[in-house]
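Q: Hi! First time doing this. I have a protein sequence and I read that you can turn it into a structure. Is that right? Here it is:
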Amino acid sequence: MDESTATKTTRKHPVNVADLRRSLGSQRAVAIDYFLESITVISSRSTEAPVTGSVVIESIEQGVSVLGSVSFAWEADCRRCLEIVVGQATADIEETFLSQAPTGSDAVELEDDTIDLVPVVQDVIGLAIPLAPLCRTDCAGPDPERYPTKTEEQLEAERAADRQQDPRWDSLSQLSFDD
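A: Yes, that's right. Below is the predicted 3D structure, encoded as structure tokens:
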């Protein structure tokens, strides 16, 4: 599927599972190669590059289970310097589609022996996008000269200095509440 024929949308990609449901335990592998709209979570987002992967659909009692994984590209703002960070992530898919799914269950309603994998893929991507990535593990932030990184010893020395009492409160230290 090339990008010119696929619209970047949340359109449905129905998979008919009627043949699987005729025999309990039947399986079918399905390749995933979708162009989806970008999914944004905080300042991280999936790119519009294709989402690829595969799932195995298996017939279970009253429905089908879907197990597999997808890979997708993402980009975000570095949490320290705000430069763009890009990466690749993989998300596992574990979903159950049931006819007459019980109210309050996590199962998706199976209608007309057809399942749509797009909402499932979008959900797992939204959960797998890194929320606060770094461009590098040693990223010093936006202005290293103004906001230098500090060692743990330096931070502890600053905390100790902050704990020193203001001399205007010295007279209060002489109070005693013991009778």
